[in-house]
From TrEMBL:
GO terms for cellular component: plasma membrane. InterPro entries: NADH_UbQ/plastoQ_OxRdtase_su6 (IPR001457), Nuo/plastoQ_OxRdtase_6_NuoJ (IPR042106). GO terms for molecular function: NADH dehydrogenase (ubiquinone) activity; oxidoreductase activity; quinone binding. Residues 175-204, 245-304 are annotated as: Disordered. It is a multi-pass membrane protein. It comes from Phytoactinopolyspora alkaliphila. The lineage of its organism: Bacteria, Bacillati, Actinomycetota, Actinomycetes, Jiangellales. This is NADH-quinone oxidoreductase subunit J. The chain crosses the membrane at residues 13-31, 38-56, 68-89, 101-123, 149-170.
Amino acid sequence: MGETTASTAGEEVLFWIIAPLAVIGALGLVFSRKAVHGALFLAVTMIGLAILYIALEAPFLGVVQVVVYTGAIMMLFLFVIMLIGVDASDSRVETIRGQRGAAALAVFGVIVLLVAVTGRAALPDPVGTAQAAPEGNVYAIADLIFGRYVWAFETVAAVLITAAVGAMALTHRERLARRHSQREQSERRFREGDPKDAAGMPVPGVYARHNAVDTPALLPDGTPAESSVSPVLVARGATRLAEEFATDVGRLGPEPKPGEAESTAERPTEPSDAATSGLPDDSPAAHGTEETDDEPEQDGGDAR
């Protein structure tokens, strides 16, 4: 039970495939310009470490590496990045005096620590998991975390909580004015705004042809409604011309015959008297004649 188990050829092949990928992910984390890309590279490194843990007969540690670090911790990092926001100009500004020198000392300390840990692990004779953890992998990990390294574990947990609280504190903005109610906003819209926009602003999109937020709506006369597009898109120059879709807009109805199309275009239609008076077309009044009950008189007098 206490003897060292020799590695097989499959384990060596797996190591030489996964280890370079984990190193590439770590280098991508260091040299990536965007924070989100760095987080993705870190996820690649964490998944590679999880595979190596499983190959070293520590399946519980591999599952925890994927679920806790790659899942929960990476999501925490991404939420902090999205809440705070990272700009390329922030890296050239020292918010704390002397932080670059402190960072250089910290990097040097980490390198010394890695060299010491690597030398300590390489000098003793390697042993198998049966001798290192005779009572099981889960029990050995619990004994190390909550026994020998309990203060380090609590410190890391406090750092993660501090990062989340710091992100919430940095993104919190103090309200300078009182928040207006819906009734007050409605009264302000009628009092200060344009009366034609009192019922609501026009929505973007050209009728049913195009409903994108960067395309202004068309007014009845065919001109684009500038108020239908967000002012942010207008300032960025990301709006599209409504004239591109104006040719697709037409009236709904039966298509005119080829012979009637030209005559209709040349001669404007006028409403008939029947249409303006509300009478049917076959009524005598619609044609300008009147009906009387009396018969017309004859010139020769009464007929006897």
